[in-house]
Amino acid sequence: MLRSKKAQDGTKAATLVAIIGGLIILYILFVPPSQRNQILNLSNDTGNSGSTSTSSNVSNQTLLLEHPGLLEYISSTEYEKSIPPLTLLVSTQATTLKTADSIVIKSNWFSNDAYNLSFSLGDVKNTQNLIFSFNIDNHQGELILVLNGQVIYEKEPGEQNIAVKLPADLLSGQNSLLIKTGSVGFEFWKTNRYSLSNLNLVADITDTSKRLSQSTFIISSTENNNIDTANLRFYVDCTNQAGLGRLNVDINSHNVYSQAPICGEIVSQPLSPNILMSGENTITFSTEFEKPTSAYYQIDNILIKLKLKSTLPSTYYFDLNSSQYNAVRSGSRTLQMSMLFPDSATSKKADMYINGIKTGLETRDYNYTRNINSFAKEGNNAIKMAPLSTFEIIDLVVKIV
Fold first, then answer.
1. What is the 3-state secondary structure (H, E, C) of 65-117?
2. pLDDT digits (tens, 9 = 90+) for 93-149
3. Phi, psi for 99 (deg, rounded to 5)
4. Which of 308, 339, 370 is the last residue in one of the domains?
5. Suppose 126 and one of 9, 38, 206, 334 were both cysteines; which one would form an S-S bond, judging by CB atoms 3.0 to 4.6 Å apart?
6. Last-in-domain residue among 172, 206, 240
7. 196 and 185 fall within a common domain
């Protein structure tokens, strides 16, 4: 009897313990999470073991990985490239090509003494009005002039002073003017003879060596990458308007202007940004004068005017969930921002805004790392870069460590 009663008491006690345990479990399931953590000894104020467990779950997480590339700094949106003044000049002058004081030529049955006046032309195209002049002191028979194998004069002159124009279509770089007398024919006893003096070969030669002028100007890569509009301006002064031809302007071998300007006016010509390039650009002014004359173009106040597009700051975003934010704000984890640059020579300067709070970037190193815990907020975070110099960022990384 006694043993049976003890067994019944033990069964009742075990049942009571089971009921109490079940009630505790139900209570834990239905209480708020914050109270549940306290009951289970997971809250921060019950010890350090709970904090270590939570923060370890958010460590070594990369929140942002971007490759920004080149950040360009533009201090002004308008630039002017000044080019020195220049003169395009064409000058035509009468030039003596060949002279001789006196010569004697003769021919008979037994001899034929001719005179060869050779001469060269450096620029046949721009040589006009070749005149061969001479005085006849005494003569007998016909006088013959042969230019480069072609007879251009054959008669007995009736005047003492002779001037013969040489045909332009027979001229070349190297020329021969043969001066001789006509044949005596069957009159073997005769001698045809000419005594000539003051022989002169004169031509109008146009000097075109200054009809072209070239200059250069520099455009930086930042300027070239952000050109919105470009314009060429210059002032034209000139003389002898009737003899002037087209004024041609080429930039990097692209013709941008070709017409006869009005003397004393300013020319304004829009340019396509596509013909401009980073570094050295070449501008060429040239002209073809319509008539052989003395004339010039004086080009002054030459400007290449650039208007650049405004560059906007670059903005990058990352998120912090509640666990990550709590770990960062408590200081148990670090929100680290780092940048990788291509070199250690370039100055990297920027105004940096993290969640709207301004801070700075200034370094020459390959790497840049900083703790940005104090800028963090739960949810969406933003990093805005406004460069104060032109530099390149290979990697921009934000992570929890």
1. EECCEEECCCCCCEEEEEECCEEEEEEEEEEEEEEEEEEEEEECCCCEECEEE
2. 889 999 999 999 999 888 888 999 999 998 888 888 999 999 999 888 899 999 999
3. -140, 160
4. 308
5. 206
6. 206
7. yes
Neighbours of 17 (CB within 10 A): 10
Helix residue ranges per DSSP H, 165-231: 221-225
d(C-alpha 101, C-alpha 103), whole Å: 7
CA pair distance 196, 101, nearest whole angstrom: 8
Nearest C-alpha neighbor of 53 from the set 321, 322, 327, 320: 327
Residue 327 structure tokens: 């770990």
The type of residue at 380 is N
What's the CA angle centered on 348, arms 345 and 353, to 5 degrees? 165
Token digits for 399? 């992570």
DSSP H or E segment with residue 216:
strand 212-219
pTM as predicted: 0.59
User: Which region holds residue 148: left if phi is over 0, alpha if psi is between -120 and 50, else beta?
Assistant: left
Same domain, 39 and 107: no
Query: Is 104 in contact with 113 (CB distance < 8 Å)?
Result: yes
Q: Is 52 helix (H, G, I), strand (E, B) or coil?
A: helix
Each residue of 155-187: pLDDT tens digit?
989 889 999 999 999 999 999 999 999 888 788
Residue 281: give the domain boundaries: 78-90+209-308
User: What three-state secondary structure class fits 8?
Assistant: helix
Q: In terms of residues, how long is the chain?
A: 401
Encode burial over 162-178: b for 16+ CB neighbours within 10 A, e otherwise: bebebeeeebeeebebb
The CA dihedral of 323, 325, 330, 333, to the nearest 10 degrees, is 80
Enter the tokens of residue 232.
Answer: 């060429």
Rounded CA gap, 239 and 258, in Å?
Answer: 18
85 and 222 in a single domain? The answer is yes
Separation between Cα atoms, residue 376 and residue 321, nearest integer Å: 11
Residue 99 sits in the same domain as residue 189: yes
Cβ-contact 293, 373 below 8 angstroms: no
- Return the residue matching tokens 């006046």: 117
